[in-house]
Structure formats: structure tokens, C-alpha cells
Write a structure and sequence with these properties.
By secondary structure, the protein is mainly α. The chain contains 28 helices and no strands. The protein starts with 22 loop residues before the first helix and ends in a 6-residue tail after the last helix.
């Protein structure tokens, strides 16, 4: 069954069609159904241009696009990465989810919650979760808990994050150790290890800490003494360390430049017949670089192979990083060539190691040659790559190179339009390239990306000075589409549930 069908839906009793969900059909739709990019783009444009629920419903109906679970997943993913209007996305989510017999996927739910959380719309997050609980509680997973708590923890206190965590007790099918682990992982990533440790000690008696609990707490320590303490507590509670646990300990020793201790753990792993894996060796390689031994780190790549553990791209990147830090670019390039010979493809992280050096040394020629090599080999730059390049182009006022990078981004769909455009518009406006700035602005809007207000104001000033009032009015209308919001009707049936939830986190 195809995941998208361009077919008129006017003859249907409902404006949408839906394929009943079951594990087998979901499996096949996920892996064997191709989602039309045109269908995703059509629905995305409808979401951005609709100004009411009725308008949205009618536009979707007349589009003829089959709104399957897979297509909705892709549309919401598109909304997320384009930073489109969250309220319009929520209206789309509610309209499609309101169809009889339809159930959103967990992916759609989590993506919608991420979009709302990024805009700090926490009250609407709880509305969506309560609706999901009523319709299918199993949609609310451990990943859902992590998505919500991560957005809350970014802007709220630890106490408020923990309070929000407790609300999930009334929402998730099982409020168990997996949920507790999601909270700890969030605190490690968004707050501090000290916060995660304190919350662990205050709540550990309410849950049963398991291997994953300790591996989460071990993975983020910068202090080897504190990591050792948790490692001992782990063993005291009868939890047997695995390769991940030992890798965490090796990593913290390597980052602390305590290579002797790292090697002792390495030997202990072998004694316990826990074979070091590629992650263990990668940590060793990185640690040797920190203590100024890049050649010894390169030798580790050979030792790995002798032990039957073959280096991956991350291991090579660690060795390349060491030579880049030492400004031994010849050796770094040799390792990148060796990667290719071994059948490993250099990734954006590999190239960024070189871009960083070239950017610091203001080496435009080497940066441009490396960028062309990157594109020729089919490795698309990531946002960090683009930022290294565009900042270098601005510094040296290379408009043509900057526009080539931008055109590649538009054509290939890589990098952050918002971040890169800020630097690009600064360069173009500073050089008086108003025509080019206007073209790039319109390209960005056509992609559903909102230029920053700072960039818009710069272009606006130049257009006013050039008396391009008609063109300016066009840009104003384009920007207005991003500021338009939809008034969503309140749902009285949630009032009882919301009364049971504690006060909002922020």
C-alpha cells in the first residue's frame, strides 16, 4: 500500500482517509512505503498559510493528499526543523487527530510536544498529553517523558523539572524506573551532574535503580572521584557493571588526563572477560591526544585491529583531532585518506576538525578546497561546517563564495538557514548587495524558514534608502505569515484532569 495517494477526497463522508493501525501494517508502512516529498511540502505550505481550523480543514481536503501516519510524521518533522508556527502545527495535529478511528503515532506525539516545548507553550503540552491519555495511553512512552522534561529543564529550575516529572505518574502507562532514568538523563544533559546526583539520592528509594540508571549517572561526570563513588555504590547495590559502565569510567579518566587509571580499568575489563569495544579504544585515543601523544594514539588504531576490534569513523576522528590540535595537518590528512581506503566515509565531524583549524588561521583557500572536496564526495556539511565557512567568507568579504554556499544549502537542504542567513545578510547588506539579499530572503521564506528580525531590519533599512517600497511591502507580507497565530478552542473535557495535575512548571 502506498503511503501517499493523490486522489480527490470529496466523495468521502470524511475529508480524510486512514489506514487502520496494527503492528504488522505499521511495520510495512514504515519500511516499504515511500512518502512523496511533494505531499509533505504541500501539507507544510497549507499549515503555514491557513488562518483558521476551517480553512485548514478545507485546504487539506481540496489538496487530495492522503494523510497517512507516515506523512503526518514527516510533516511534523518538517515543521520542527523549519521552526514554523507552533500553533498552526498544533491545529494541524488536532484536525488530523480528530478523525474517527485515527490514532497518531508516538513519533507524531513526541514531535508535536517538542515543537510546543521549544516555544515554551507548556500549558498546551499538558493539554495534548491529557488528550493522548484519553485516546491511547500507550502513545505516551519513556521517550515522551524525555522530550517534555528536556524542554522544561532548558528554561525552568530543577525543582520545577522534578514537579513536571511527577505529573507523568497520572499520564504514563507505567511510572517506573525507565521514567526515573529519563529524568536523570535529562538533568545530566540540560542541568548538571550535581543536580542529577541530588535528584537521584532524593528519589532512589521510590524506584529501583538498575544498570541503566548508573550508566546514565556515570556517563556525564567530569570528576573521576565522583564517578568512582557511583561505581562503588553500583556494585554495593548488586548491580553488575557492563562494558558501558567501564567505558564511562575509562572516558572520565581520559578526559581528566589520568591515563594510568584508564589503562588499569582497561586491563580490569579483560580480566573480567568484558572485551573492550570501539568506544573504549576511542576514549583512549582521545585521552592520549589530551596529554600530547598523538603518535601513540595513532598506534592504538593498529592495536585495535590486532585485538579484533576495528576502528570506526569516530575512532579515526579522535585520532585526526589530535593531529589537528597539534597543527600536524599532513598527518591528519593521511588518516582521513586511510579512512577512505578502509571503506569508511569521512563525515561532517571529520571535515569540521579541519575547518576549525583553517578558520582560526584565516586560511580561505584551504577551507574552500576542503568544502569542494566535501561536496564532490557527497558528504553534506552540517550547521557547524556552514558556520565555519560563512564566518570566514564574511571576514574576507567573499560574496560569491558565500552565495555559492547558500545556493548549495537551498538546493541540497543542509545546514541551518536561520543561523547562516544572519551572517550572510550581514555580509550582503554591508557590501550593498541588496538584490542578492532580497533573493536569498525570498528563497528562505519559500523554504518555510523565518529570517531573524535583525536580518529583516537590516534589509528593510537598505530598501527604504533605495526607495524600493513595493519590494519592501512584499517582504513585510512574507514575514507576516510567520507571526500569524490561530486561536485554538478550549477543551472543557480536560478541565477535570488538569485539576488533578499540579501547577504548571513555568
Amino acid at each position: 500500500m502506498k503511503a501517499t495517494i493523490l486522489k480527490s477526497l470529496t466523495s468521502q463522508s470524511s475529508p480524510f482517509r486512514y489506514v487502520p493501525q496494527n503492528p504488522i501494517s505499521q511495520l510495512f508502512s514504515r519500511h516499504f512505503c515511500s512518502i512523496s516529498d511533494d505531499g509533505v511540502e504541500t501539507v507544510f505550505r497549507i499549515i503555514n498559510s491557513s488562518n483558521s481550523s476551517t480553512n485548514l480543514t478545507q485546504s487539506l481536503k481540496s489538496s487530495g493528499v492522503f494523510l497517512s501516519n507516515d506523512l503526518i510524521d514527516q510533516v511534523l518533522k518538517r515543521v520542527r526543523f523549519s521552526h514554523a508556527n507552533p500553533l498552526q502545527a498544533l491545529e494541524f495535529y488536532n484536525v488530523t487527530g480528530g478523525r474517527k478511528g485515527f490514532y497518531h503515532t508516538s513519533f507524531s506525539l513526541d514531535t508535536m510536544l517538542y515543537i510546543l516545548g521549544r516555544s515554551r507553550m507548556f500549558e498546551r503540552i499538558w493539554d495534548v498529553l491529557i488528550d493522548a491519555k484519553h485516546k491511547d495511553r500507550n502513545l505516551i512512552t519513556t521517550r515522551t517523558v524525555m522530550v517534555v522534561l528536556a524542554r522544561i529543564a532548558k528554561v525552568c529550575s530543577v525543582r520545577q523539572t522534578v514537579e513536571s516529572f511527577r505529573k507523568f505518574k497520572k499520564l504514563v502507562p507505567e511510572f517506573d524506573t525507565n521514567c526515573f532514568n529519563a529524568l536523570l538523563r535529562t538533568l545530566c544533559q540540560e542541568k548538571s551532574m550535581a543536580d542529577a546526583r541530588n535528584v537521584y539520592h532524593s528519589l532512589k528509594h521510590s524506584f529501583r535503580p538498575n544498570l541503566q540508571t548508573f550508566n546514565i549517572l556515570l556517563s556525564g561526570w567530569k570528576s573521576s572521584e565522583e564517578a568512582e563513588g557511583f561505581f562503588e555504590e553500583m556494585k554495593e547495590m548488586g548491580v553488575k557493571p557492563d562494558v558501558v559502565s567501564y567505558n564511562c569510567l575509562v572516558d572520565v579518566y581520559c578526559k581528566s588526563r589520568e591515563m594510568d587509571k584508564a589503562y588499569k580499568v582497561f586491563d580490569k575489563m579483560r580480566e573480567k572477560e568484558i572485551l573492550p569495544d570501539v568506544i573504549t579504544y576511542t576514549s583512549i585515543i582521545g585521552g592520549l591526544g589530551l596529554v600530547g601523544q598523538p603518535d601513540k594514539a595513532r598506534d592504538v588504531l593498529k592495536e585495535m585491529k590486532e585485538d579484533g576490534c576495528y576502528p570506526d569513523a569516530a575512532a579515526y576522528n579522535a585520532a585526526i583531532r589530535n593531529f589537528c590540535i597539534a597543527r600536524r595537518l599532513g598527518d591528519a590528512y593521511s588518516l582521513m585518506d586511510e579512512m577512505v581506503i578502509k571503506g569508511l566515509s569521512p563525515n561532517p565531524t571529520t571535515y569540521n576538525l579541519f575547518f576549525r583549524v583553517f578558520c582560526l588561521s584565516n586560511d580561505l583557500g584551504s577551507s574552500w578546497n576542503l568544502y569542494r572536496r566535501m561536496m564532490d564526495t557527497g558528504c553534506l556539511p552540517n550547521t557547524q561546517s556552514c558556520m565555519f565557512l560563512i564566518r570566514l567568507f564574511r571576514r574576507q568579504e567573499k560574496v560569491e563564495m558565500a552565495l555559492q554556499l547558500w545556493n548549495d544549502m537551498v538546493e541540497k537542504g543542509f545546514g541551518s538557514y536561520t543561523l547562516v542567513s544572519d551572517v550572510l545578510f550581514d555580509l550582503l547588506c554591508g557590501m550593498g548587495k541588496l538584490v542578492e539579499a532580497e533573493r536569498c530572503f525570498l528563497q528562505m521564506v519559500e523554504k518555510g524558514q523565518k529570517p531573524s528580525n535583525v536580518s529583516f531590519r537590516r534589509i528593510k533599512v537598505l530598501m527604504e534608502l533605495a526607495n524600493k517600497h513595493e519590494a519592501l511591502q512584499n517582504l513585510l507580507e512574507k514575514m507576516a505569515r510567520f507571526g500569524r497565530s490561530i486561536n485554538l478552542p478550549g477543551r472543557a473535557d480536560n478541565s477535570t484532569d488538569k485539576a488533578h495535575l499540579e501547577s504548571l512548571p513555568c
